[in-house]
Every structure is written in structure tokens, then in C-alpha cells.
Recover the amino acids of this structure.
């Protein structure tokens, strides 16, 4: 028997991933993440423990922390309806949120095609005649729940957003064409994801091509220290075709699985915070900004502060172009109400009313001026010291 990944074992045994990690902790088994592999002995021990637990009709080895949740409720198996991303609250009351996924990779390796395929098959079609608005992110509905994709040109957005200190993406998909393998921008994308400490999933695209060589891609990955799981490593590699759709469902499944392991949560009742994904000026509508809600809930009429500017939400649309009144965590929304276009990557916060918004802006302006003055003073005293 070869090595087994932690989450695979959890799935096979019908145990919650977190429960599995907890058992390993109790056993003193060290692991890096739930995608780490276990040796045969550990697998057997775990199997024994689970069997004991089930024989005892519940949580024999479960510590008090988890026993408050009945085992049967811990992981709803194949819920008939689509599970709502915010429905399952944890013990401490902070609900799960949908994962935010970014697609990166070399030119022409099929990033847009992959997103198009997902959007086409997983996003409710707009009624004919509706204006197709470009929103830099969209929500896909899968059997495993909602997944949010950031649909902006490659790693440009990823890096500008990150350069401003905001991490919007929870998972990065590195797209590699099966007929081209690793290219300069592939390496760059991998480096970006690693720097951001965002888990990666490799999608080997274009497997429909006769010259496709997915095995070569896997071997090449090992040269940059990304060892595919079938070679005993930690990297999930999904062969697929954005053209035929083969393998795309698997990718969505792996995204959901990775998200589950990341245990992503956000409180819709907390104070709002978000990030500007992109913005543009529409000749008729004015400034349209796409905001990713990261925490809290946005409502039409709220006052938003971005840097040293503020605005009031006049209208809000979701990625499907529907008008909405409020939006919770992991929801990309297009907002009308800024007087100037904010830059992508800027952090967005909200204020109770216009007065509070103005005060926040004033305090930021004040802080910036103080910092500038301090810099100027340091420069002057340095010059004095030098006797100039
Ligand atoms: P840039 O945005 O320029 O970096 O490219 P991209 O990565 O978005 O690639 P894009 O989706 O534009 O695809 C590039 C070319 O590859 C297009 O001609 C696609 O039709 C083709 N292509 C993408 N995916 C597949 C696939 O799975 N199979 C085949 N045969 N062709 C594909
Ligand atoms: Mg593209």
C-alpha cells in the first residue's frame, strides 16, 4: 500500500477533515497540512480508532470541544440542495464563507478559456437582451457550494492587490498547457502564490490536444520543487481541457476540498471590510467599482471609505448583473457611488454615516501629513548635523 493523503483517508472513512487532524494531533503525528501523506501504520491506527468510535456509537476518542456537535451533523453527506456558504456556523459562531480563487499562468495556456467554461456551465445565464457587464469576479455555483473566481488578467491583479497588502485569493490555480509545460510566467505565477502563502492547485490544460504530454508537465513541476501527489508529494494536479470540459468538475471538487481544509470563515455581522478588485468609469453610470466583501455585510446606502476618499453606495449589483440590496462575505459586488475611481487592491471600510466617513478621511489625511512633516524634520536635522 502506498502513502495516503490525510483528506483522502478522511473522505474514505467518512470523517470530518478537522476531526482527522485532531486525531493525528492526539496521536502526536506531525503533518504539514491535510494534504500531507500518512504512512501505513498511522493509517491502520486511525482506521482502528474510527472503528472503535463507531462501535461505541459516537465519539469515544473525541475531546469535549467537538463532542458538542453530534457526529452525524458534522459533515452533511451530499446535501440534496446546494449548501449555502454561510449556513453552517461553527462552535464559535463564525460561519464558513466561499473560497476566492484566482487563475494564473503563462500566456495562452488557457486561463480565460477555463474561466469561460466554468462561467458558461456554472453561472446562471442572463436573460437575452441583458447588458453583459464586465465584473472582475464571478460566483460559480457547484454541487459543493459557491466558489468565487477572480476574473482579471492573470497575475497582474493578484500582484497589484497583494502589493497593497491585501490578500484576496484563498486558492491559486496555476494553469499549464499540456503541450507547452512550464514557461517563464508559470514560474512567476508559482512564485507569487508561494510568496502569498496561498495554496496552489495545478491545472494541466489542453489535454485534448494530440501533442499533449501531461506526464512531462508533472516531471517538470518537480524541478521547481512542486511534487505532484502521485509522485508522493503534496501538489494536487488536475488534467483537464477548457475546450471539452473534461476534468473541470474534478478541479471544482479539489477547490472545494482545499477550501474545506483551509476552514475559511467570515462573520457577516462583523464590521465591514473589503478590497477593491477593479474600477472603471462608465460614461453614463459614472464610477463603477468592484469590491470583494471580506467581512461584514454591505448595504445600499452605506458610506464607504477608501484611502482618503469616501462615497455612499447608491446601487449595488452582483456578478450576474442583478441589483442587490446587501452582500455578505466572499461576495464580489459592483458599486455605484464613488466620485473618483479607486485603485485595485485598496482596502475598503465602512462608516456609520457621512460625518463618521468624513472624520475617518480627515484622520487619515492628518496622519499622512504628520508622517510627511516628521520625514521633513528628520531631513532638516540631518542636514544641520552635517553642517550644511
Ligand atoms: P492570455 O490571457 O493571453 O495570457 O491567455 P490565456 O491563458 O487566457 O489563454 P486563452 O484562454 O486565451 O487560450 C489561448 C488559446 O488556447 C486559445 O486559442 C484557446 O482556444 C486555446 N485553448 C485554451 N484551452 C484549450 C484547451 O483545453 N484545448 C485546446 N485545444 N485549446 C485550448
Ligand atoms: Mg486570457
Amino acid at each position: 500500500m502506498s502513502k495516503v493523503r490525510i483528506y483522502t483517508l478522511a473522505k474514505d472513512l467518512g470523517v470530518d477533515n478537522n476531526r482527522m487532524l485532531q486525531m493525528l494531533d492526539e496521536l502526536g503525528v506531525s503533518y504539514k497540512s491535510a494534504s500531507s501523506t500518512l504512512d501505513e501504520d498511522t493509517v491502520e491506527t486511525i482506521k482502528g480508532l474510527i472503528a472503535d468510535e463507531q462501535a461505541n456509537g459516537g465519539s469515544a476518542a473525541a475531546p469535549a470541544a467537538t463532542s458538542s456537535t453530534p457526529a452525524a451533523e458534522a459533515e452533511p453527506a451530499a446535501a440534496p440542495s446546494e449548501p449555502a456558504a454561510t449556513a453552517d456556523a461553527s462552535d464559535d459562531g463564525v460561519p464558513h464563507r466561499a473560497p476566492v480563487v484566482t487563475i494564473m499562468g503563462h500566456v495562452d495556456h488557457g486561463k480565460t478559456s477555463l474561466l469561460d467554461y466554468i462561467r458558461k456551465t456554472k453561472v446562471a445565464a442572463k436573460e437575452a437582451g441583458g447588458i453583459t457587464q464586465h465584473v472582475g469576479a464571478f460566483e460559480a455555483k457547484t454541487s459543493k457550494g459557491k466558489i468565487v473566481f477572480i476574473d482579471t488578467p492573470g497575475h497582474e491583479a493578484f500582484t497589484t492587490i497583494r502589493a497593497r497588502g491585501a490578500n484576496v485569493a484563498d486558492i491559486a490555480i496555476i494553469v499549464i498547457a499540456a503541450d507547452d509545460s512550464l514557461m517563464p510566467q508559470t514560474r512567476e505565477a508559482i512564485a507569487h502564490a508561494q510568496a502569498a502563502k496561498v495554496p496552489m492547485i495545478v491545472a494541466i490544460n489542453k489535454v485534448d490536444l494530440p501533442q499533449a504530454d501531461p506526464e512531462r508537465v508533472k516531471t517538470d513541476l518537480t524541478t521547481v520543487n512542486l511534487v505532484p501527489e502521485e509522485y508522493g508529494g503534496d501538489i494536487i494536479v488536475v488534467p483537464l481541457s477548457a475546450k471539452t470540459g473534461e476534468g473541470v468538475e474534478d478541479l471544482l471538487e479539489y477547490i472545494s476540498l482545499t477550501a474545506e481544509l483551509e476552514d475559511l470563515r467570515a462573520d457577516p455581522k462583523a464590521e465591514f471590510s473589503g478590497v477593491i478588485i477593479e474600477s472603471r468609469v462608465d460614461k453614463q453610470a459614472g464610477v463603477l467599482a468592484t469590491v470583494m466583501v471580506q467581512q461584514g455585510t454591505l448595504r445600499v446606502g452605506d458610506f464607504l471609505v477608501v484611502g482618503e476618499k469616501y462615497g455612499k453606495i447608491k446601487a449595488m449589483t452582483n456578478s450576474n448583473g442583478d441589483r442587490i440590496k446587501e452582500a455578505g462575505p466572499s461576495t464580489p459586488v459592483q458599486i455605484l457611488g464613488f466620485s473618483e475611481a479607486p485603485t485595485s487592491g485598496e482596502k475598503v471600510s465602512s462608516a456609520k454615516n457621512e460625518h463618521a466617513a468624513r472624520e475617518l478621511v480627515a484622520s487619515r489625511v492628518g496622519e499622512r501629513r504628520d508622517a510627511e512633516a516628521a520625514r521633513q524634520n528628520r531631513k532638516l536635522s540631518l542636514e544641520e548635523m552635517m553642517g550644511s
About this structure: Residues 111-112 surround magnesium ion (ligand 2) (CB under 6 Å). The two ends are 77 Å apart (CA to CA). The longest strand covers residues 273-282. Residues 59-90, 127-133 have pLDDT under 50 and may be disordered.
